[in-house]
């Protein structure tokens, strides 16, 4: 086998051959301004008379707030106001919340604190320095309450409830069963089981969450922020602030990065808006790193699993049985949506019909969970792959063989999985074959044996094949409850294309889209494909909420698919108008015209044509040249709704189609483990993804690389640690270890393209895939490297100390 | 003398000027939103005499700003709240590396990165050239100073470890003159040192490594550039029969101060260079490990790691010696 093997005969033909812009490597149109330091991030904004906020954070995990003495702070010259939970109680409604209404949350703790780092009081002052001075002299009296840090103990009778109104620390419990799991396990020749813990980590953008709020004209409060899907959910912020939604204007500000961490991160803009309302002055609140790590509501999944999987002696999966307890922390802003992501790809890429998924969500004295690349699907992938690996070892099957035997085959799509979600298309064997070929698996298997024999080194090879769901539908937020509080079914995206009188293109997006991703590259590439103009010539802007059409923004790997649909829809309308104007001017039938490379021409007679500038001139300034009844101007908008979503069954035996645009990936890692230091180093790593039609291989490669790097962080380095006393131990980058260029190997990336039958151009989302595979493959490789010591990764992150302990225990027992 | 001292107010543009100094420069920050240390007075003397006088006047209320790699985060997180910060970056007298016979004196203000590239250091103090690349990242080393690292006295830091292994001497200066403190007694507790409140660390003197001696520095950290979970610096001399004739082993990151692994040194002295012998002897260092569990390492892991880095560093230094060391 060679290292240069191209897609096997099973791979589909490259479907982008007919496109001029889509599918070719292009530099990002966002880069020029970012590379010269003109990103215009939130902290770069200058506002006349701006005040600055600093926050006193709770030093205790669970306590009643008896009193807050603000008098010393208010004596400091330059301190304008000190606000506490009492102000929130008096003047606000609880923050937006997709969890149970009995778990209410305010941006400043009301009556009691529930985790270390929760906001207790906010000082607003003429500068951040003075605000911090004010924080230093606040005097708060707490009465400690019994603390709850262990999620299992949190659910024991007698555990102190975090939310008295909710009654217990069990935030949610439900068991979903599809097929017959008892029979599946009874019929299995082999049942593997495992006890697993996925620890907390989080997306960690260089730029924290921040907002500036300014009282504007006509009583409109203007909020600039780098978080939130504001055109989707702005009215919920207005509701919390008790102001009419048309008196709150939210303007998106580009974020340096999010990785999910700023997805619907509502507390920072809500709080900042509240401060501006109460002081009547413009106020800035930009989290510092301590604020961000402790309190940005972006901590991700923290799950404890008892998992079982049945197999026939031939390695065919019979069923999957999951009990999962998720430590959600002190609040539940997204409900249990992170498990909806797991249910969307419950069976992975494998063909089996029986599954049980029992979920309990616990409340503990920790920061609440938020969104992070994968949104909980990556955890389920890891559990699945752990079980499949274990079965392969016990059955004596090669890891690629057991997977191949169970793959859903290309001809079986669209494939409805147990639980109801649909997989649109795929070619899993092609992805696996491409990865095996790229890494030359047989070479590494020989090399592994040779290095062990001749040099005493421990090399491990890991293989993981996992799903990469994309394009979420909001129906996933409401199948959890028989009577959902928030039964929405829309999650659209919009675009407005304007051709100005000179023929130049303006493209307006209607959501908070610039999160360190490539929204403008994608949108302008699609526009370029439609009109034949260069992407770099298109100017992109973002609507504020006073103008925005429906838009949901990035999240659930939806944006590329959805914005492509929106831009294409608007393009179709605008192209029709251009052609109608040209038909009228050229006195030919519109049916005889086509738009090619920026001009409208007669089919078969391209010398009879009109350029876009000429047509634009007519549209704006020569109404008498337009077809009768046509409005002047050249602007069209389109709102693109989710391409394929269905309602859940009333009895929830079928959850409906909510995440059908299904990508797939195979990663193979070769790494070396030092058994005496526990350190790992990569010798090779390939990552092959199928995200449907690739819009831009360069930017998709960036997504895979960044996601895989973050997956590596969650696997080996990053951990948000609370000790048994509820103290937070990871509040700086001294202790929260984000992998750097030194730790991240050069991922070799391959693409397989199986177009989606349901999306424009056949695109699938690919923004999260890297992180949805790395934990599985690295765990597998570590186990393989140290198999002689009985290494078996059951907890992430797996730390050097864990590895050395396993090795030392094995040595002691020999 | 104080005429050259600049007084700046760190916080409030246009604040009333302190009256004790002659010249006032108001510090106007363009990144005022991003920085948030508590209020302090800022002095930046041009001469060592001025620096010493300021330190003597303000004592424990003053902290020295050299490279700022530890002090600035502490200020911004308000873990340190000095009333005065004395910036010694303008004191060029402290930025020299000089050799006097068998001693190399390194000024406190010398940047750590200079030790990686300076030919004199590479030849005369090869252990330093090997240890310094483990300090943080290159950006930290371009700014961080030798004196700053010693004064910060972090037991997991590389330079304090090299000082202890090398029997270096730390030079302190107060208003009554200079005194010299051996590294072994300079580091006297967790993040503390023998420098009095009215003194500055002004230099460190390393004995030149003998010709033919081998050196090695082995470190394990969670990530490249992180604080050492355990590190070992070794200077070894080996005779023609392949036996250790001199051995100095220092260990960082395992106790409240950088250690000498004297048990290991004594056990190996006179013994042949043999991996199994070295590995067995290195285990004696485990008893000296007192750092308890933290989120990066368990105590048991750190003990094993200490023995591992000592074993590997001793073997590497011996191999280096057999290959002629730095000569």
UniProtKB/TrEMBL annotation, chain A:
<dbReference type="GO" id="GO:0016491">
    <property type="term" value="F:oxidoreductase activity"/>
</dbReference>
<dbReference type="Pfam" id="PF20256">
    <property type="entry name" value="MoCoBD_2"/>
</dbReference>
<dbReference type="InterPro" id="IPR046867">
    <property type="entry name" value="AldOxase/xan_DH_MoCoBD2"/>
</dbReference>
<keyword id="KW-0500">Molybdenum</keyword>
<dbReference type="InterPro" id="IPR037165">
    <property type="entry name" value="AldOxase/xan_DH_Mopterin-bd_sf"/>
</dbReference>
<protein>
    <submittedName>
        <fullName>CO or xanthine dehydrogenase, Mo-binding subunit</fullName>
    </submittedName>
</protein>
<dbReference type="Pfam" id="PF02738">
    <property type="entry name" value="MoCoBD_1"/>
</dbReference>
<dbReference type="InterPro" id="IPR008274">
    <property type="entry name" value="AldOxase/xan_DH_MoCoBD1"/>
</dbReference>
<dbReference type="InterPro" id="IPR016208">
    <property type="entry name" value="Ald_Oxase/xanthine_DH-like"/>
</dbReference>
<dbReference type="Pfam" id="PF01315">
    <property type="entry name" value="Ald_Xan_dh_C"/>
</dbReference>
<dbReference type="InterPro" id="IPR036856">
    <property type="entry name" value="Ald_Oxase/Xan_DH_a/b_sf"/>
</dbReference>
<keyword id="KW-0560">Oxidoreductase</keyword>
<dbReference type="GO" id="GO:0005506">
    <property type="term" value="F:iron ion binding"/>
</dbReference>
<dbReference type="InterPro" id="IPR000674">
    <property type="entry name" value="Ald_Oxase/Xan_DH_a/b"/>
</dbReference>
<feature type="domain" description="Aldehyde oxidase/xanthine dehydrogenase a/b hammerhead">
    <location>
        <begin position="36"/>
        <end position="146"/>
    </location>
</feature>
UniProtKB/TrEMBL annotation, chain B:
<dbReference type="Pfam" id="PF00941">
    <property type="entry name" value="FAD_binding_5"/>
</dbReference>
<dbReference type="InterPro" id="IPR036683">
    <property type="entry name" value="CO_DH_flav_C_dom_sf"/>
</dbReference>
<dbReference type="Pfam" id="PF03450">
    <property type="entry name" value="CO_deh_flav_C"/>
</dbReference>
<protein>
    <submittedName>
        <fullName>Carbon-monoxide dehydrogenase medium subunit</fullName>
    </submittedName>
</protein>
<dbReference type="GO" id="GO:0016491">
    <property type="term" value="F:oxidoreductase activity"/>
</dbReference>
<dbReference type="InterPro" id="IPR036318">
    <property type="entry name" value="FAD-bd_PCMH-like_sf"/>
</dbReference>
<dbReference type="GO" id="GO:0071949">
    <property type="term" value="F:FAD binding"/>
</dbReference>
<keyword id="KW-0274">FAD</keyword>
<dbReference type="InterPro" id="IPR016167">
    <property type="entry name" value="FAD-bd_PCMH_sub1"/>
</dbReference>
<feature type="domain" description="FAD-binding PCMH-type">
    <location>
        <begin position="35"/>
        <end position="211"/>
    </location>
</feature>
<dbReference type="InterPro" id="IPR016169">
    <property type="entry name" value="FAD-bd_PCMH_sub2"/>
</dbReference>
<feature type="region of interest" description="Disordered">
    <location>
        <begin position="1"/>
        <end position="20"/>
    </location>
</feature>
<keyword id="KW-0560">Oxidoreductase</keyword>
<dbReference type="InterPro" id="IPR005107">
    <property type="entry name" value="CO_DH_flav_C"/>
</dbReference>
<keyword id="KW-0285">Flavoprotein</keyword>
<dbReference type="InterPro" id="IPR002346">
    <property type="entry name" value="Mopterin_DH_FAD-bd"/>
</dbReference>
<dbReference type="InterPro" id="IPR051312">
    <property type="entry name" value="Diverse_Substr_Oxidored"/>
</dbReference>
<dbReference type="InterPro" id="IPR016166">
    <property type="entry name" value="FAD-bd_PCMH"/>
</dbReference>
